[in-house]
Model the fold of this input.
Amino acid sequence: MLQEESDLSLIIAQIVQKLKGSNLYAQLERQAWACLQRPEIRLESLKEDIKEFFKASGWEKKLQNAVYSELNVYPLPSHPSAPPEHLKEPLVYMRKAQGSWEKRILKSLNSMCTELSIPLARKRPVGEQKELLNKWNEMGTDEPDLSLFRPVYAPKDFLEVLINLRNPNYENGDSLSFRTHLGLIQVPLKVKDIPELKECFVELGLNTGQLGIDDSTQVPPELFENEHVRIGQKVLVQQDSAAAQQYIRQGSPTALRAELWALILNISSQPEDILYYEQLKTNVIQHDLLVDSLIYKDVKLTASNDDYYFVFEDYLYQVLLCFSRDTSVLSHFAYNSASPPKSYIRGKLGLEEYAVFYPPNGVIPFHGFSMYVAPLCFLYHEPYKLYQIFREMYVRFFFRLHSISSHPSGIVSLCLLFETLLQTYLPQLFYHLREIGAQPLRISFKWMVRAFSGYLATDQLLLLWDRILGYNSLEILAVLAAAVFAFRAVNLMEVTSLAAAEAVLADLSTLKVMPLLQIFLFATVT
Amino acid sequence: MSRQKNQSYKAHGLPKGKEREQRTLIRFKTTLMNTLMDVLRHRPGWVEVKDEGEWDFYWCDVSWLRENFDHTYMDEHVRISHFRNHYELTRKNYMVKNLKRFRKQLEREAGKVEAAKCDFFPKTFEMPCEYHLFVEEFRKNPGITWIMKPVARSQGKGIFLFRRLKDIMDWRKDTKNSDDQKDEIPVENYVAQRYVENPYLIGGRKFDLRVYVLVMSYIPLRAWLYRDGFARFSNTRFTLSSIDDHYVHLTNVAVQKTSPDYHPKKGCKWMLQRFRQYLASKHGPEAVETLFSDMDNIFIKSLQSVQKVIISDKHCFELYGYDILIDQDLKPWLLEVNASPSLTASSQEDYELKTCLLEDTLHVVDMEARLTGREKRVGGFDLMWNDGPVSREEGPSDLTGMGNFVPNTHLGCVNDRKEQLRQLFRSLQVQKKAPG
Done:
C-alpha cells in the first residue's frame, strides 16, 4: 500500500513538474487572476471557489486532458535510482544495437556529404530566400536534381539489423523443440497471444458495433451508426480526451475524425502554436539543410507517385521541412531508445560546447518517411494544424517503428508478435512459406514500418489509425499483418517462391481492415 | 415539391404487350479500338461484324451518324449509340440556347425560384452573333476573367483565357486574316464564357468532375446515373496570375498529358468515392448531400431543356460524359456535356472503371431482352429519372406527396455492382421460369 502511494505521489510530482513549464500553466494562472473579479469568488473560500470556476468554465477539463496526455506519452517512472537510459530502453543489448545502427546511419550520411561536397547546413543567400518564400505553397513544382542523393536507408536495411539482434544472456540451445521460434526475429521478448489480444482489444469483438463493419451499406444506420455519431458529437462537446480515446476504439465517423484526433492528441491551435510554426517556416527559408534534399527525394519517390496522395505533395514539404528544424522534438528522445545525432562545428570535433544536433530535430528521414504525413493531409488543411498533429503522432507512435527497443509497441516486438501469431495459429502456412524461402516478415515488415500507409485504401487506413489512437498502442499493426496473411492463406499455400508470395500480397488496396481484424481475433477457431 | 406519380409499376422503356424476342446472337459494330472493343468482344453471344455486314448494335462515332443516320433503315430491335441531333445538348452554343429558353419557360410556368435552379451554367455568349450582348456584360463586370471556347472541338483544343477586350480584338483580327488566305477553313463558332475564378481547390490544385449519365429515351425522359466517375486534377497549382499557362486552367486529361509535369504513372485522377469522402471529412455529410443533389439538378434540368428538341428515336441511346466544376462555396457548375466521352483508359483503375461502365451500359440497353423494365438499379447505374423523379424508397410512393423524397442517385457511393448484377440476373431467371 505504502509503495503504491509513494509511486503515485512520485508520478503526480513528475507530471506537475512537467506541466508547470507548459503554456497551460500560464493560461490557468491568468484565468485564476482574472476570475478574482467575479462575484461568486469569495475571500473566505477562495480555493474552493476558484476550483468551482475552473470546473464550470471547462478549464478543469483542459487540465485533465493535459494530465491524461502526459500519462499516455511518458512511461511511468520505475525505480528512483534507475538511470535515464533506462527510460529510453531498459535492456543493455538493445541500447547497444541501437547505438551501432545509429553510427551506421551517420556514416552513410557523412559519406554522402563528402562525396557530393555538400555542407550539412548553409545559410541561403537573400535572393534564394525570397524565391523560396514565393514558392512556399507550391514547392512541388520545383524539380531539383536529386539524382545523386540516395535515401540514407530503406526499411529492408533496418530489417537486416533486427534479424541479427541477439540477447547475449539468452541461450536457446541447439535442439529444436516446439518452443523454437522459426521466424527471423530471435530475441526473447514477451508478446501477447490471441486470448490476451482479445482481452486487450475487447471493443473490436463480434458483439460490439464498429465503424468499418456496422456502417456498411447493408446495415441500416439505426442499428448502430446514428447512435455512434450522436455519441461522438457529445464527446466533442465535452472536450474530454479520455472519453474520446475510449470512443474512438469503435471507429470515428468521417466528419468528426479531424476534431477527435486533435482532442485525443490534446492539440488545440493556440496563437503561440501558429507563431511557432511560422518561426519554423522562417528557419526553413533562411537555412538550407542537407536533409531537405533527402526529404524532397523521398516525397518525389513515394507520395508523389501515389494515386491518392500526389495531390498533397506541397503540404508534405511544408510539414517535413519544418519538422526537421523543430528542436522541441528533441524532448521525445528521453523515452526513445534512439539518440539524436551530434555534429560538431568545423574544426571543433569532440568539443561538447561546439556540438549541435543534426538535423535540429534529431530525426533522419528514411525512404518512405513522408508516408507518415500523407494520410493526415486528408483531415487537416491548415499547415500549422497538420504540422502539430503530425509532430504529436510522431513523438507518440511513429518513432517506435524505426528504433530498436523492447517496448511492446516497438518495431522489434511488433515483428515478433507478427511472427508468433503466424507460427502459432497458421503453422502450416508459416512452415510452407519458410520452406520456399519466403519468410513472412520479409513481406510484412514494410507494411508495419509505414503503419500501412500507402498500402491500404485511405478510408481503411484512417479506420486503422483510429484504433492506434484508441488503444495507444501499435500492436494492432502486427495483428492486421497476420490477419492479411490469414486472409490470403489459400493463395499463399500454392506459391513456390518469394517473388510469387510478394505478388499475392502486392495489392492490399481492396482489403477491409475491420472485418479482417475481427475475424482473426474473434472468429477463428484456434 | 412536385406531385409524385405512382412509380412502382412504371416500366423504363420496354414495349408493353408483346414479348421481346430473346436474341441469342447479337451482331455488333464499332470503330473504336479501346475498352469498348474489349467489352463488346467479351460479351457472351455478341459477334463483331465488319464492313458492310448487317448489325444489331452499332457504337458509332458522330461523323458516321451525321452522314448515314438519315438513310439507314433499322429494325425494331436495333440499337445505336447516339441520338440524331445530340449536338443540341453537347455543342456549347446550342446547349446555352436551349438552357436559356428552358429557363425562361420555367420562369413563366413556375416562378423565379424554380428558374433559378437553372443557374448552373456560367454566363455564356455565342460568338460572333452575340458579341454585342457579350460586350455589355463584359463592361458591367470589369476585371473578371473570361474563357473563349470553340464550340465543337474537344480535348481542350483552341481554348484561351482573357481579361481585356483587346485580347479578343487581336484574336478576331488573326482569324479574319487566316480566313482571307485560305477559303476552305470554315468560320468556327466560339462561345465566350464567364470563368469561374474561385474553384474549389484540393492540395492547391484545380480539378473538375467527370460524371456519366445514360439516356435511354427523351420522350419520355429516362435517364440513368452511374455511381462511379472521377475528379481530374490539374498538374500545377492554381493561380489567376498565370492566365497564359494553359496547363493550369484546363483540367482535361488530354491537355494535362502534354504538361511538363505530367507523369503517366500518376494519372492525376481521383475516383469519386475518394472525392466524396474527402469532402465529407472536411465539410460534413449534410454539405456533401446538398452538393450532390445540386449536381442531380444539373443533370435533370440540362436534359429537360433539350427534351423537346432532340429527336427521340427509339433505336437511340446515349452515354454522356458531364464535366462539372465545383467552386469554393460548394456550388457545382456545368462546364459541358460530351456525347462521346473518352473511353480510352489512362491507368489500370481507369480501365476497370470504363470497362464496368460499358458493361453496365450494355446491360441497361438490354439487347438480350433479360430485364423486366421495372428495375431501378442495374449494376452501377441508378435510374435517376423516369418521366418524373425516381425515389430511393421501394413500393408505391407516399401518396400525400409530403413524405421525405430521397432521389434514387448514389453518385460517389459504394458501387457493389457485381453482387447486384448477380442477384438481379438470378431473380430474372427465376421469374422467367415461374409459370404465368
